């Protein structure tokens, strides 16, 4: 049984925290601003691309 299968069956709340280094956080915020996006929107798009690409 995988670790995923042994987890309790509880609903996802739709948000989570990630930890990045300060420099990466700054680069991400600057790139998002350059593209006219907020930080959350930029991260959501990146995560969606990661999931879809799999």
Q: Rg to the nearest angstrom?
A: 15 Å
Order of helices and strands: HH
Contiguous runs where pLDDT drops below 50 for at least 5 residues: none
Tell me the overall shape: elongated
Distance between the termini: 22 Å
Major sheet attributes:
none
**DSSP strand (E) fraction?**
under 5%
Tally of separate helices: 2
User: What is the helical fraction, as a range of percent?
Assistant: 40-55%
Mean pLDDT: 90
Q: How many strands appear in the DSSP assignment?
A: 0
Q: Which secondary-structure class do the elements indicate?
A: mainly alpha
Protein described:
With 54 residues, the chain is mainly alpha-helical. The protein has helices at 22-34, 39-53. Helix 1 packs across helix 2. The radius of gyration is 15 Å and the shape is elongated.
Task: Briefly characterize the structure.
The protein is mainly α. It has helices spanning 22-34, 39-53.
Summary tags:
0% strand; 2 helices; mainly alpha; 54 residues
Task: List strands and helices in order, with pairings.
Elements: H1 22-34, H2 39-53
